[in-house]
Structures are given as C-alpha cells and as structure tokens.
Specification:
The protein is of the alpha/beta class. The protein has twelve helices and five strands. The radius of gyration is 17 Å and the shape is globular. The two termini are about 25 Å apart.
Length: about 230
C-alpha cells in the first residue's frame, strides 16, 4: 500500500475531531498482518497486534463497526473471540451490522450497488465467492444506509471510493480512512506504545525494497503528517 502524505484527508480529519462517528472497518484491521511471502519476516502474532493496534483503536473510537460479511472473514478463533468480546462490552466497543436490517426496498438498492461495485473486483455475486466479498458487501450496505466512513488497508476499497465517479460505483459520497493515518493518530495521543506503533508502520509500509521506493520511513512519515495535521494535536 502507498502512503499518501501530500494532502489533508477530510475523512481522517473528521473522525479524529469527532471519534464517536460510525466507521466501518475492513477485515484486515482485525486480522494480524503476514508479509512473510514478500520478506523474511514472521507474521504478527494476534496478541502483539491486539495490544499495539486493536485495543488502542477501539479505545479511541466509539463508533467502530463491521458488516457481517467482514465478521465472517474473522475465521481464527482468537480474532473472532476478540470481536465477540468487544461487541458484548457495555457499552459495546464494536457493532456488527447485518443485511437483515435492510427493508425489501433497501435490499433491492443494495443489490444494485453490489452489481455496480463487483465488476471492479474479484467478487462474483452469483457464486458469492470469498474473494473481495467483505469489501463489496460492506460498501453496498453502507451506501444504502448512507454511512460515510470506511477504514481500509487494501487498494480495492480505496480505489472503489476515491475513483467512484470514474468507475460508476455509486460511492461518490463515501470517504476512506487508511491504517497509516490511524497509526499516526494513536502515536500522537501519547497514550500507547510508540515503539510498537513504529514497528507496525514499518511492517506494513516500509518493509520491502518496493515499499521503500514509494513510502517515507517512519521519521519522515511523522514529519510529513505533522505538516498536515499538527494543529489538531
């Protein structure tokens, strides 16, 4: 994933100003990253990922949600059990939204969005295959219910939202927040393990030679983000 520090992201700006807003997460916000296929590194353990990323994220943002299709992707017991614990907190730290919430009119609209979005993905609505299912069905549900913010660390949903007009996805009013922006926010709060957040950033965005050609190293990343957002902290 490319790190973009060229301009202010109004979606990121909005949710840090009002952290109670509804923000839907992609599955890769819950599933520990594993880049062992591109570098000689181990996959993140769930416990490390939970401590440095998930717990801080859910502590800071009260409106975190996922669609049921994303919940279905949390197949590892430790990940799914954690999600269940968070939704059962009082008050809940995680909300799961289901297609059963849709009226018949909304279902028809949802299906239209799925058709528009799926053609730009590997998801086949007829087969209901797993690839890209979570993103397509999450975004379609959100569009019907007019939820605005989707948080992702994957090129597909970023493209579907940012290039909505060109692609005809119907997601023109939606905005995307990326993981590196939230890593930066957690770092700037001074409430969490800064070393662990730096390591997570490097693992996700500055690990391979390709990463290093397109993304800033940690110190430059913080400096560039400060130029955009420092007045907010």
């Amino acid at each position: 994933m490319k790190v973009d520090t060229n301009e202010v992201n109004p979606a990121f700006q909005s949710i840090i100003q009002n952290p109670g807003q509804k923000v839907f997460l992609d599955a890769n916000f819950f599933i520990p990253p594993d880049r062992s296929d591109v570098a000689k590194v181990k996959a993140y353990s769930f416990n490390d990922f939970k401590e440095c990323w998930l717990i801080p994220l859910l502590n800071e943002f009260a409106g975190v949600a996922i669609h049921e299709s994303v919940y279905d992707e949390l197949v590892t017991d430790s990940v799914k059990n954690f999600a269940d614990e968070q939704k059962d907190e009082n008050p809940p730290k995680l909300t799961i939204h289901y297609d059963s919430e849709l009226s018949s009119v909304e279902e028809a609209s949802r299906n239209t969005y799925i058709s528009k979005i799926a053609v730009h993905s590997l998801y086949n609505p007829t087969r209901d295959n797993a690839k890209d299912r979570g993103e397509v069905r999450s975004l379609s549900f959100m569009a019907v219910k007019q939820f605005l913010f989707f948080a992702a660390n994957d090129a597909l949903p970023v493209r579907l939202i940012k290039d909505a007009a060109k692609l005809g996805t119907g997601l023109d009013d939606m905005q995307v927040v990326q993981m590196y922006e939230l890593i930066y926010y957690l770092y700037k709060t001074d409430r969490y393990d800064k070393k662990a957040l730096r390591i997570l950033y490097k693992y996700q965005y500055y690990l391979t030679s390709g990463d290093k050609k397109s993304n800033p190293e940690w110190g430059s990343f913080i400096e560039q983000m400060d130029l955009l957002y420092n007045e907010m902290f």
